[in-house]
Amino acid sequence: MTKKTNERNVLPIKKGDTVTVLAGKDKGKEGKVLRTVPETERVVVEKVNMMKKAMRPTQANPQGGISTIEAPLAVSNVMLVCPHCKKPTRAARRRTDEGKKIRVCKKCGKDID
Ligand SMILES: [Zn+2]
Hints:
Bound molecules: zinc ion
Shape: elongated
Number of strands: 10
Number of helices: 0
């Protein structure tokens, strides 16, 4: 099954954002977004949704073994934490004078981008 890539598929969360987890085993945790996966609407959050993964032996790690890595979680299960007021918020969007779309905190009204 192939999913057509929608170029307008822009996540409300970006790499480097701080988010709080709304659901799942890490509910209530906060972390920094390491990576976003717009194709599947998932994000990878530092120290959240840790999964054990069997690693094949490599030159750098000849023994192989079990490694713990962050698994992606659905973007709907996290909420952006505003860097200004530190509250979880659904970002609003506004257009700047230059025509650029930026995110705005709905709680304190400050620009996030
Ligand atoms: Zn705010």
